[in-house]
Write a structure and sequence with these properties.
504 residues, alpha+beta, seven-stranded antiparallel β-sheet, 35 strands, 22% helix, elongated, disordered C terminus
């Protein structure tokens, strides 16, 4: 682990150095002076983050606007779009349209105000699918450059101990930021649960006669089988008693004989050669023979019992061997279709008072190591134990059923976070926002999209996905939700090289 951290640290320092070289080249060729006073503004819509720096706006003077556009769906740069910026002051509008960025996500505008006064910037984004609009209000345009620079300089904010992490850096990693949100989160009971087939989704197929088992083809656990397909035959050849083939042949012969006799009586009845009583007797014999034959025919033939799967599914267990002798009622194999799965958790007795307030649960899949909410799995609580069973180790069972189950393997064990109802709302952040250091927890608060502050927080309960924050941040503090560990490493690299990172 130490070697990994050292390697990552060296990587961050190397990337930061490359970014610095890249920025210096950017300044040299594009005339972007980092020593002058700049205006910074950040705006969010449901789809985009805008982070831009601009020259102070002066009537008659061109102002450069270096704008970064980030897609909030994945926090990657907007790479293909036509963007028009408009400086609007009443009916006076100055605009410029750029068909492509100078780099992915970065658009460099130059706009010359015609009048001074309070204005607003409007960025209209036209992509292949939609048109979006980002509005920046309270843009001041001044009549002279000296006043504009003087006021902009007074508005400059100095961030002490801020961590520099440029948009170009964040675009290269799995990164995101969010606002903490309020949510009702009560007692959370963490436990281990077993994934079981739904009781109505598993069928055990049994032998209906005595005899020797013969597989029609390979019958293996995990194999898919179709409903109605014969999988096994059970032959009673050589048995002195209860021979299925003999019974089937006898029933077939009796049926055919009774049918022939009945058909003959029907023909004679039309000629009034037989009585009604004889006719009724022949019909009863025929119906009885037919019932016996049809009952055997559905499961037997001349070779014995034909064992079929009653429905499509997966073979869970094969309980007999090829050539094995079985008696009627012996389980042969089981089939499951896994339309529904049961999640059976077991909790300690001290948790019993909370079980009546269960609201939902989060379950961690072992196949993809992802946490799913009960809602995502189309699940619900079925029951929880009201008594103690010593066979269960004196634990209380809690059972859920889920329908979306492709991420879960029947028979496996999973971690489960059982959530109960609460009377109050708490401040919540994703677990991925938290960094632990020697038992203390921290988050990175966004000051600007390129400046972050490490802040200690006190945490409460966690449901495996989100964690309750007791103190340290407010609902207005936007925090890093993905990539926090990389921001932490960037903080170390910044302390080693104060010029590391891309600084606008």
């Amino acid at each position: 682990m130490k070697h990994f951290i050292l390697y990552a640290l060296v990587l961050i320092i190397s990337v930061s150095a490359c970014n610095k070289k890249e920025v210096d080249t950017h300044d040299e060729h594009e005339g972007h002076d980092h020593g002058v006073v700049k205006l910074f503004f950040t705006e969010y819509t449901n789809e985009f983050e805008l982070f831009a720096e601009a020259d102070p706006f002066v009537k008659g003077n061109p102002s450069e606007i270096l704008a970064h556009f980030t897609k909030l769906e994945d926090f990657k740069p907007l790479s293909k779009a036509s963007i028009t910026v408009s400086l609007v002051n009443g009916s006076n509008i100055v605009k410029q349209t750029l068909e492509k960025p100078i780099k992915p996500g970065i658009y460099k505008f130059s706009i010359t105000p015609k009048v001074n006064g309070s204005s607003k910037l409007i960025f209209e984004i036209e992509s292949e699918k939609n048109t979006h609009k980002i509005i920046v209000k309270n843009i001041s345009v001044y009549g002279d450059e000296h006043t504009a620079i003087h006021i902009a300089d007074k508005k400059q904010v100095t961030y002490i101990n801020a961590i520099n992490f440029s948009k170009e850096q964040s675009w290269k990693i799995d990164f995101a930021t969010v606002y903490p949100h309020k949510e009702q989160i009560g007692k959370v009971i963490k436990s281990t649960a077993q994934i079981l087939p739904g009781q109505t989704d598993e069928t055990i197929i049994t032998a209906k006669t005595n005899g020797t088992v013969k597989f029609n083809k390979h019958l293996l656990e995990g194999q898919f089988v179709e409903a109605g397909k014969a999988l096994i035959s059970i032959s009673g050849k050589g048995l002195a008693n209860d021979n299925a083939e003999v019974r089937y042949t006898e029933a077939k012969n009796n049926f055919e004989l009774a049918k022939a006799n009945y058909d003959r009586k029907v023909a004679l009845l039309q000629k009034q050669i037989v009585s009604e009583k004889e006719m009724e007797s022949a019909k009863a014999e025929y119906e009885n023979a037919k019932a016996v034959y049809q009952n055997l025919k559905s499961n037997f033939n001349e070779n014995g019992q034909m064992v079929i799967s009653p429905n499509d599914g997966i073979i869970k267990h094969v309980l007999v061997d090829n050539g094995e002798y079985v008696e009627a009622g012996t389980p042969l194999f089981s089939v499951v279709n896994n339309r529904n799965l049961i999640i059976k958790a077991e909790v300690q007795q001290k948790q019993f008072p909370y079980l009546k307030n269960i609201s939902t649960a989060n379950i961690k899949s072992t196949t993809d190591n992802k946490l799913y909410t009960l809602k995502e799995l189309k699940g619900e609580l079925i029951s929880y134990g009201k008594t103690i069973d010593e066979d269960e180790g004196y634990l209380i069972p809690v059972n859920f059923i889920i329908k979306e189950n492709s991420a879960f393997l029947p028979g496996s064990f999973v971690d489960i976070y059982i959530k109960t109802k609460a009377n109050k709302e708490s401040l919540i952040v994703p677990n991925t926002s938290l960094i632990e250091e020697q038992g203390n927890y921290f988050v990175f608060v966004q000051l600007t999209p390129e400046r972050f502050e490490k802040r200690e927080v006190k945490i409460g309960v966690t449901d495996g996905i989100n964690t309750e924050i007791l103190t340290g941040i407010s609902q207005e503090d936007r925090v890093v939700s993905k990539g926090a560990i990389i921001v932490k490493l960037a903080a170390v690299s910044n302390s080693l090289d104060p010029h590391a990172g891309h600084v606008h």
